[in-house]
Amino acid sequence: MVDQCALRVMRELRQFARSDDLAIDISYKEQNTRELNALIIGPPDTPYAQGFYQFLIRIPPEYPEKPPTVTLQTTNNGRTRFGPNLYASGKVCLSILGTWSGESNEQWSPVLGLETVLRSIQSLLAAKPYNLEPGFENDDDEEQSELYNAKIHHENLRLTVIVPLEKAFDIKTTQPSTRPGQGVYLGAGIYQSNSSVPEAPFHPFLDTYKRRFLWYLESYKMAIEHGLNDKKARARHSFPLMAFECADNIMGGSWDYEDMKKRLAVLELRIMEETKKWPVQGKDMDQKDHPLAASLRAQSQQITRQLTQRTEGMVVLELVDDNPFLWRLIYHGRPMTQYDGGVLKINIFISPNHPAEQPRVILETPLYHVRVSPQNVLIYLPLQADEMSRHVDGIISSLEEDKPPVNPLMTVNPEASALCWGSKEEQRQYSRKLRRSVAATLE
Length: 443
Description:
alpha+beta; Ubiquitin Conjugating Enzyme; 2 domains; four-stranded antiparallel beta sheet; 8 strands; about 10% strand; nucleus
């Protein structure tokens, strides 16, 4: 008998695989497609901006007649409530999931699917979550709403970005309790709790966390500076509790942007150190004739020939120190383009775990560009993650796109983005700054 549930789920997963949505990612084991891990990136212009929220989705055998069950796993081990509908217990309150009451047209229907569920959850990461609490929909208490946003903003940075990456790098740190009135320190055991709420299994999205950290690093730094200047976020003062927060379903804690600033700097250093170790590890693999090293070397040779023919020598690919895990793309600016006369040298760091870990691309000289961060990290989207030719194509396309479409989740240089997509005068200012940075590549 054909398993209709499995067929339906696989069809939906294939649709997701073809999607270019940067806000939602799904991971699963092929032998069990009824248990999915989902990652939702917090929407820009909300207190959840660029945060990482993981969910466990279990599909019942009766799906799509019955809805999936969804558990939020970004809860600080059951200690932190991230919103009126996102409980510390992991409960996600949505009428289509049957976890909240609603009108008949808001209930689950077999015509709905995983995308509807994830979009509905995404809508809970709202600009004004205070007004999502039942009974507070029309509450115009701006002071309370802003205070609620302020503490979510703080914990979004601390608990969804900094703490998970510290865990990944095994960075030991002490952190104050999230329960008001408690002076104990949780230390490195932040993930070890007697809570029955399991913390998110980190491995499905580890590479995504690290890559997005590099993408959004400047935004994180700006958010912390904003917090340091916010009078509501007085250092080491406890978070205020909202009227609807009670018992164990709260967001407790205290402000400490100074501490987060230091920890963010440590993470930046560790990720860059890891990136620069890849070629060292790769060189050892190459000397041992590892299949991945041989494959990368062969791919580089093929891509080099293709680039020479396709670009008439304007784009050159070489292996740095004959290392197949460190490629250098030399991009000669074409006449009558924004790169006219410039020479961009772009290093492509390839992981020994490629393609499970995606390459990291860093320019040797600064470039004022909407797709290049102030840390010289280039953002690009390869059409196929496991083919290096697609990565090279993605890098070139990212650089040559004259008028890139507005996509807040691809904002790696907030200042350049504001100018590029601003007024006519701001666009001219962006072009001047870009041209000056291109000219500086020859100095």
